[in-house]
Amino acid sequence: MGEPKKLKLMVVDDEPGIVDFVKKIYSRKGFITLGVSDGQSAVEVFKLERPHISLIDIHMPFSAIDGVETLRRIKEIDDNALCIMVTRVSDKDKIESARQLKAFAYLLKPMNLEELDSAITLAKTAAGWEGN
Amino acid sequence: MIMPLPYESELYEQIKKQKIMISWDIWETLLYKCLGDYIVPIYLICRYYLCQNMPIPESEARKILSCTSNIKGIVNEVIRIGEGDKLFPEVKNRITLHPLIKELFTYYVGNTIYLINLIVEHSLTESTSVKQISVEMTKEILDNAQQVRHFLYKLLKETASTIPN
């Protein structure tokens, strides 16, 4: 019998502390977690690893491309990619752009784990995931 | 801790040049409701347990989460000032927050509070029999709480129109 399949979650945020803790929390929940701190690396990791769910921060001042552009490039690779955007109340235009690019959901910072869990659970269901 | 915005000095320079101010009413709401009521308890809980060199027990950790949850509500309310959404009655119909202020506020408070939430939740879900926040993680939470305090003090210094006696 092979290893049970695990769901892959990619965390994209230019704050290393945030990437680190989201990875730790979801690894413990049984996910395979991938963390990157800039948009370009996220696109590369997406090409190679094809995560089931991507959690992408929109506002990344330390990244050459922001979260919306990262989403656009990921959608070019796979239009069905499930991307949850993390943003701020003040990013209204970017939220609208993400919606047009068919982001799966968006969460407003500062969110708690319950909100994050709930968005990820919805994405799992949308992916038809029965594992974990 | 959250990395400083790479273009932070330019933002403060623009605030200075354009003489962007925040009314004292709004400051009162930010400081007393955000900093005073919710950031300080986080700071005090961390300081207390660090002084004892003891982990923070679950009940106290839950208090930190309650504070961060209240701060989230305040962030959302404050950012909507002037946008016709529900507001604190005391700042209703007052000046709109300038986009540069929103940029700084949401970056520092949003990221820091999100990070504190993650650290606490990570600690409470760690697979040990006792749910608590280790001394090491407590130091991280304290650093983040202090970063928010310093940010708010700096913003106050740069933008408060008049500070009543």
Can you describe this structure?
The complex is a heterodimer of chains A (132) and B (165). With 132 residues, chain A is of the alpha/beta class. Chain A has a single domain, classed as Response regulator (Rossmann fold, 3-Layer(aba) Sandwich). Chain A is built from five helices and five strands; from the N terminus they run βαβαβαβαβα. Chain A has helices at residues 16-28, 39-49, 67-77, 92-100, 113-126, and strands spanning 8-12, 32-36, 53-57, 82-87, 105-108. Chain A has a five-stranded parallel β-sheet, sandwiched between helices. Chain A is globular. The mean pLDDT of chain A is 91. Chain B has helices at residues 8-17, 24-51, 58-79, 99-124, 135-159; strands spanning 56-57, 132-133. Chain B has one domain: Four Helix Bundle (Hemerythrin (Met), subunit A). Chain B contains five helices and two strands. The radius of gyration of chain B is 17 Å and the shape is elongated. The longest helix of chain B is centred in the first third of the chain and has 28 residues, at 24-51. A two-stranded antiparallel sheet of chain B has the order 1-2. In chain B, helix 2 runs antiparallel to helix 3 (58-79) and helix 2 (24-51) runs antiparallel to helix 5 (135-159). By secondary structure, chain B is mainly alpha-helical. Chain A binds chain B through residues 14-15, 17-18, 21-22, 24-25, 28, 59, 61-62, 88-90, 108-113, and chain B through 1-3, 5-7, 65, 68-69, 71-72, 75-76, 79-80, 99, 102-103, 106-107, 109-115, 117-119, 121-122, 125-127, 140.
